[in-house]
Amino acid sequence: MTDLTETTPAEDLVSAPFFLRGEVLHGTDVIQTSRDLGVTFATPRIPFDRAVPPRTEVPPLLNVPLAEIIDFLVETGQRMVAKDNDHMQECIERMCRTHILPRAVVEHTARHAAAYLDKRTLMAEVEQNFPDPRALDEWIPKQDYTGRKSFVRAFAPRLIHVLPGNSPGVAVKSVAQGSMVKAINLFKMSSADPFTMVAILRTMADIDPQHPIVKSMSAVYWRGGDDATERVLYRPQYFDKIVAWGGGDAINNVIKYLGPGFQLVSFDPKTSISMVGKEAFGDDETLDRVADLCSADVMTLNQEACVASRYQFVEGPQEQVDRFCERLHHHIARRAAESGDIRKLDPEMREAVEMMSMMDDEFGVWGRTDGKGLVVRSEEPVDFHPINKTANVVRVDSLDDAVKWINVATQTVGFYPIDRMADYRDRLAAGGAQRIVHLGEAGPSTIGNPHDAMYPLHRFVHWMAHEDGCAPSGN
User: What are the coiled-coil residue ranges (predicted)?
Assistant: First the structure.
């Protein structure tokens, strides 16, 4: 991060404005650098007095009925995909300058993200997270078995959201969830995407600049780990919780500020896998179909998403597993070509794979390190983190042997065949896995289901109890 100087012409910079509770703040005061591509972009300085509302202020959304909030979110989703929405169009143009994914993937993901703002989807999220959703709108009377009375409410929290840069969908989901729990929200945008959240909020402001949702939202950018900024914002006198997405560095930056009254809700780094049983080798048609399903999981968001499969545990002798690897590589390469993604592997991974290609007895390699799709077959998971259209097929004699590689960082397990899933789900959960799905269905999820082994909205709110009566004497 550096100050703008005369040697950096403003017209050459991508500008990333801020949004502060209904107002857009433009400026090129600070030069920032995107994490993945090293592209520079300019932002204003953060006006802390405008980004942090005082604790004495009742949250603007507190007494707005949930039904009204959802209606506004639905209207926002419709406006996001409207052809005349200049905010979203401009957002995509700018994001293509800073994002690692190709334009076609960015555009598709941005359009698809708005589908989350559907009334049925939003209501399902609330109903699954709260046994009694009325707690978001009112104080719910309670009485225990002793006769003692109280009222309980899911009170509007104050949240800082540390957003990832891999998908605009997280921005859409975060603004919806922050609205439904009636929070005061400060969104820290990612250097890979310092645009989507502001575009969403500007779309909302066009609908109604005075709406309490608009007045509850701010979006800014600072470099993660910037102590001068984070020691100001990450305080319990200003916020209740940090909702953090992202890699290990992003989570570690947050942890050091935690303390009494200031909590972390973490969507921390996860690794997803595939488990393929010997049934895949029934005939050539089945083998090709299963390999294609597996490639769909590998290539979810071009392998940038947590649900994207990194390791594929395949049950069978080496000769058959090698046949699977050949078909898997074919389908990964096809999907990569269709997306227009030609990113090459990073130098360290490229060197590791090239070394493996010379060790025929231990490894098999299909494809090259040119970013067009790659499969590495091994007897144990490789040491590097497979990414950028790279699959690591681990041959196992039995899927039972794959279970030992499950841990608390294992998010999604894509499984084939379907009729063996129930035999493994308890063992996968015991190992730490959080989700098991049909092979090929890692991307979509059942609406309202837990995310990363929790119900997020239930974690976001500030649960408040109002005790209002003593138990009868003698109890």
Answer: none
Q: Is 280 exposed, middle or buried (0-12, 13-18, 19+ CB in 10 A)?
A: buried
Residues 309 and 356 in one domain: yes
Say if residues 1 and 30 touch (Cβ distance below 8 Å): yes
pTM of model > 0.70: yes
Q: Are residues 169 and 316 in the same domain?
A: no
Kind of pairing, strands 184-188 and 271-276?
A: unpaired
CATH number of the domain bearing residue 326: 3.40.309.10
Same domain, 218 and 198: yes
* Pairing between β-strand 271-276 and β-strand 309-315 as defined by DSSP bridges: parallel
Q: Are 352 and 381 in contact (CB under 8 A)?
A: no
Residues 282 and 324 in one domain: yes
Angle between the N-to-C axes of helices 103-113 and 86-98, in degrees from 0 to 180, rounded to the nearest 10: 140
The domain in which residue 418 lies consists of 271-438
What is the residue-level pLDDT of the chain in tens, covering all 475 positions?
Answer: 444 333 344 456 788 999 999 999 999 999 988 776 778 889 999 999 999 888 899 999 999 999 999 999 999 999 999 989 999 888 888 877 777 777 777 777 777 788 999 999 999 999 999 999 999 999 999 999 999 999 999 999 999 999 987 677 889 999 999 999 999 999 999 888 899 999 999 999 999 999 999 999 999 999 988 999 999 999 999 999 999 987 667 777 788 888 888 899 988 778 999 999 999 999 999 999 999 999 999 999 888 888 999 999 999 999 999 999 999 999 999 999 988 887 888 888 999 998 888 887 789 999 998 889 999 999 999 999 999 999 999 999 999 999 999 999 999 999 999 999 999 999 999 999 999 999 999 988 888 899 888 999 999 999 999 998 765 554 3
Residues 214 and 296 in one domain: no
DSSP string, 56-91: TSPPTTTTS-HHHHHHHHHHHHHHHT-TT-HHHHHH
Q: Which helix (H) or strand (E) holds 102?
A: none
